[in-house]
Amino acid sequence: MAVGLALAPSSGLCEELSACGAATIPSSSDGTSSVTLSHRYGPCSPADPNSGEKRPTDEELLRRDQLRADYIRRKFSGSNGTAAGEDGQSSKVSVPTTLGSSLDTLEYVISVGLGSPAVTQRVVIDTGSDVSWVQCEPCPAPSPCHAHAGALFDPAASSTYAAFNCSAAECAQLGDSGEANGCDAKSRCQYIVKYGDGSNTTGTYSSDVLTLSGSDVVRGFQFGCSHAELGAGMDDKTDGLIGLGGDAQSLVSQTAARYGKSFSYCLPATPASSGFLTLGAPASGGGGGASRFATTPMLRSKKVPTYYFAALEDIAVGGKKLGLSPSVFAAGSLVDSGTVITRLPPAAYAALSSAFRAGMTRYARAEPLGILDTCFNFTGLDKVSIPTVALVFAGGAVVDLDAHGIVSGGCLAFAPTCDDKAFGTIGNVQQRTFEVLYDVGGGVFGFRAGAC
Known about the structure:
By secondary structure, the protein is mainly β. It is about 10% helix and about 30% strand.
């Protein structure tokens, strides 16, 4: 079995595309709320196109991606790289002292409103972060905050803004997760988030009204009001970050009573189209309902609750399973919006690469691209035919990847982990065009093909 792949002019991880195609966004109804989601560097991005933000080269993006993957792996180093035990809960995971990841790997942006009256904020989303934050006044550019495309959020101009006192339970909660940063002279709670590349953001832990779309508002939304930022990872034109991780501070946990601790997103096939982020689970039935999803159990770690894992069991190439032993994937697979390339245990990657190469004999091999070593020369071609690739998860869920989720930059968009004991990662390239459902409350992942 093969699938056709149309090649963009650059055919790279960051394609040069000038026009934004139309997008279909689910209606906000039946207990859900949806917003448009776009690639940070594409023509659909809500960020100012004249802001001057440079898109990274493929090599730089892969370098940053490896930093993120290495950082997350170190967070679980206390369990020898294993994400979850047989019961889905690991008792051997050590809690890190540095939180977050490399901020400059995050690729997908949404627009929200913050405060009363609402001020538009262009924020990246991250399932590997819990604390949300935006740049706030006073925060002069270029130091100690990065340059920004839109208006800084001014807490003094919002009638609903409030800073948490150091004695508040919300402030104590930051201390439990290692993100507390003491009190200021007015006894206001201070936070700090340190990222794996050395960047950090500090300021006042606060609350205000978050406007998602239309009349969908989250009152008392907790976030960091950033007054100082350090590091190259902060050198972009977005306004902040929305954390979709599994710990108490994330937007998912904060809105659990309203949206059932469930969310989904669809990452577009290319930067020239848009996807969506939805809070709340789809209703059962036809259309985009829950019955349309291929589902698999979600695994969690009690001591590092930010991350979400699934149990990958096999891979199919060209419609034929590789026949990998489930023990190959015993450490679990992180499902992450911020990691670009999928990582597999070396034994699984070697089998995938071999089977894929066998189906690509008509194309000349090319030099490796960073961490990607199964590459082909597509020079002069507008379209190529590649073997299908499907991920087989526990419970029988089979996820047939979109062509754009198989090859990127002329290379097979997979890489090996450091060793066979380390957990793998399902990166955002492989998630393209799927609605990926995180039913955190129900402990289930869902995958719906062709959603955007």
